[in-house]
Design brief:
Length: 394
């Protein structure tokens, strides 16, 4: 049997040093080669532009040599300082440098992605300095993230196929720095699920609250983009009154399910601490019933038991009961997924995780950029991940 010789810590450090020396030397040689090539090419292009050699004379000439100037270019190999040929008339620019941008695309992408991961603009600059050798200012990071504005507009204008069977609607609150101080901005979000279990975050809109007008704006936008609801079977919401009113205007014929998780919070907050455990247990018996008939029986027991003590709470539950029990009209294996907004709430967990290090957003445009980037990343990850429980075969 072959004996395994343990690798000492000293040998591991030696291997790491060799790798670092090799790659460091390789990157250094590559950077030097690029520098030499581009500097010589700028001189050759200047000579071609002038049409004259160093000691050639001509009666009519349109420009003259005027030495060199230096410019830094940030690349994946680090910062390269080039000595670029120039002319007196400043009409000449080497064609090779027109495409060789001041900041390479991959470095710009790294800056933008680091910011979108929740790292502050100041910290992003320090990270890039470690990689490229050039510190990047917070202002530069902010300018690069503004390039997302076009992608945000494209996302909001993208047409939708009328292929969504379940629609989840909810809002997430974020803090924004305004001239009058920090204020909260509500982000209204739509999440769709197809018949095959594939899913996508379809839309988001910024608002001051969850009013009927705000939600109507989002729903009308979905309708305009193509979600006419011919195939839509159920809309699940958190129970916001403004959203319910907006649904009655835009999608009046679609079944509406209110979230039991949100309703349970309202029920528990309306009762005394000493009664909370029993009230919670009796309320759970309603939505955990084996059929709609059993759920109605559980509600009648709940009403008989708790109406004498909490009449307003019981009346509120009774008013919302039809929408709370809508999930019973669908296959049993879907009940747990359809009776809450947990699917869309999981997306909000990712939003809060990414935005928490930022404390608050500088302006509302930065809110849109961050939310778009998070949702766009989720949509890409979900392309090959279906919710199997929603498939017809489930």
């Amino acid at each position: 049997m072959r004996r395994v010789v343990p690798i000492s810590e000293q040998f591991q450090h030696f291997v790491e040093d060799v790798k670092e020396t090799f790659w460091g030397d390789l990157y250094g040689r590559t950077r030097a080669a690029w520098k030499e090539f581009l500097q010589r090419e700028s001189e050759r292009e200047r000579d071609r532009f002038l049409g004259l050699g160093w000691y050639d004379r001509a009666e009519s000439r349109h420009d003259w040599r005027n030495g060199f100037y230096e410019r830094d270019f940030v690349t994946r190999f680090g910062t390269i300082r080039l000595r670029i040929a120039r002319t007196r008339g400043k009409k000449f620019l080497p064609k090779g440098l027109e495409n060789f941008q001041r900041r390479a695309d991959d470095v710009s992408l790294l800056i933008r992605e680091a910011f979108l991961r929740g790292i502050s603009t100041r910290q992003v600059g320090k990270i890039i300095a470690i990689i490229t050798g050039e510190p990047v200012s917070a202002q530069t990071v902010s300018k690069l993230t503004k390039s997302l504005d076009g992608l945000v507009r494209k996302f909001r204008q993208a047409p939708l196929k009328d292929e969504w069977h379940r629609l989840f609607l909810d809002g997430v609150s974020l803090r924004v720095r305004r001239p009058g101080g920090r204020k909260r901005v509500q982000m209204l979000v739509a999440y769709g699920v197809r018949l095959d279990g594939s899913r996508q975050l379809l839309a988001f809109v910024r608002s001051q609250g969850e009013s009927q007008a705000a939600w109507e704006g989002l729903l009308q936008d979905l309708y305009r983009r193509g979600l006419t609801a011919d195939n839509l079977q159920l809309i699940v919401t958190d129970g916001c009154p403004g959203l319910a009113a907006a649904l009655a205007v835009v999608y009046p014929h679609v079944e509406h399910q209110r979230c039991w998780l949100h309703k349970m919070r309202n029920i528990v907050n309306a009762v005394r601490r000493v009664d909370r455990n029993r009230v919670t247990e009796d309320a759970r018996a309603i939505y955990q019933a084996d059929s709609r008939a059993e759920a109605m029986a559980a509600f009648r027991y709940f009403k008989k038991t708790w109406e004498p003590l909490y009449s307003k709470m019981v009346q509120s539950l009774e008013n919302d009961l039809a929408e709370l029990l809508a999930f019973f009209r669908f296959p049993r294996h879907l009940w747990k997924k359809l009776r809450t907004t947990n699917l869309i709430e999981r997306s909000f967990v990712e939003v809060r995780r990414r935005t928490r290090p930022m404390v608050c957003f500088v302006n509302v445009n930065s809110v849109d950029r961050i939310i778009f980037s998070i949702f766009n990343r989720c949509n890409r990850e979900w392309q090959n991940q279906t919710l199997r429980i929603f498939t017809q075969a489930a």
